[in-house]
């Protein structure tokens, strides 16, 4: 899957446009990561999009299912992916081959807005993997991280069998929609103290009603 990346470098005329657009967006105040653009065919774009934007992932049937959905949606004219951009440092952006020059320029400007958002928005601070001790730059190596995850899962698949691994991943993914994406930003709930010093409140005695009928006193 990652082999196509050797053949998708940005052509010179788009590289010139990239320099102009980058100079402009920095001039209006955007704070961006260095950004690498590549040009993909619609089929390659669907492959990357099916992987969630990352060229290398773990082996699982869900990627093929998503690729089929994206391919049919494109072929039937229901959708078109103009670009993909990855929250990485440097950021990686994919442009669709066959877009007009105007489309490509608009998309590149749009990508830089995404990158500024990735770098500076509060919600994306959680995706930082630390700071480079030499340069102080934000470390975000998510493409490498996803590839390493894939290598680890392939290693275990070779040891205990792909079917066992797939069943385990299926069980994990069944919980995917139950994870609250806002949970990292919510205050942590503290469990009630169980120390011996904390005394439970004494039960209150509820007074009985006074009655004047003998049959109600029994």
Helix coverage percent = 40-55%
Largest beta sheet: what is the strand line-up? 1-3-2
Indicate the radius of gyration in whole angstroms: 28 Å
Assign an overall shape: elongated
List SSEs in N-to-C order: HEHHEEHHH
What summary fits the major beta sheet?
3 strands, mixed
Low-pLDDT parts are: 1-6
Q: Report the average pLDDT across residues.
A: 87
The number of E-state strands comes to 3
Number of discrete helical segments: 6
Model description:
- With 218 residues, the protein is mainly alpha-helical.
- It has a domain at 2-144.
- It has six helices and three strands; from the N terminus they run H-E-H-H-E-E-H-H-H.
- It has helices at residues 12-27, 42-50, 61-75, 101-120, 142-160, 162-173; strands spanning 35-40, 83-86, 91-96.
- Strands 1-3-2 form a three-stranded mixed beta sheet.
- Strand 2 and strand 3 form a beta hairpin.
- 17% of the residues are buried.
Question: Key features?
Answer:
218 residues; mainly alpha; three-stranded mixed beta sheet; 6 helices; 7% strand; disordered N terminus
Task: Give a short summary of the structure.
The chain is built from six helices and three strands; from the N terminus they run αβααββααα.
Could you give the topology of this structure?
Layout: H1 12-27, E1 35-40, H2 42-50, H3 61-75, E2 83-86, E3 91-96, H4 101-120, H5 142-160, H6 162-173
Parallel strand pairs: 1-3
Antiparallel strand pairs: 2-3
């Amino acid at each position: 899957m990652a082999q196509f990346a050797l053949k998708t470098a940005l052509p010179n005329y788009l590289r010139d446009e990239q320099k102009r657009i980058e100079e402009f967006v920095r001039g209006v105040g955007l704070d961006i990561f260095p950004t690498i653009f590549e040009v993909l065919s619609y089929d390659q774009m669907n492959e990357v999009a099916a992987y969630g934007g990352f060229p290398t992932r773990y082996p699982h049937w869900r990627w093929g299912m998503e690729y089929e959905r994206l391919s049919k949606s494109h072929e039937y004219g229901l959708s078109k992916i103009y670009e993909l951009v990855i929250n990485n440092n440097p950021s990686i952006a994919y442009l669709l081959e066959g877009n007009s020059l105007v489309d490509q320029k608009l998309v590149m400007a749009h990508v830089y807005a995404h990158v500024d958002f990735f770098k500076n928005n509060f919600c994306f601070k959680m995706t930082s993997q630390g700071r480079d001790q030499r340069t102080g730059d934000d470390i975000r190596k998510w493409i490498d991280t996803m590839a390493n995850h894939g290598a680890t899962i392939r290693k275990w698949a070779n040891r205990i069998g792909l079917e066992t691994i797939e069943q385990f991943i299926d069980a994990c993914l069944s919980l995917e929609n139950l994870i609250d994406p806002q949970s990292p930003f919510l205050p942590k709930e503290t469990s009630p103290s169980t120390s011996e010093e904390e005394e439970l409140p004494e039960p209150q005695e509820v007074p009985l009603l006074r009655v004047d009928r003998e049959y109600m006193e029994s």
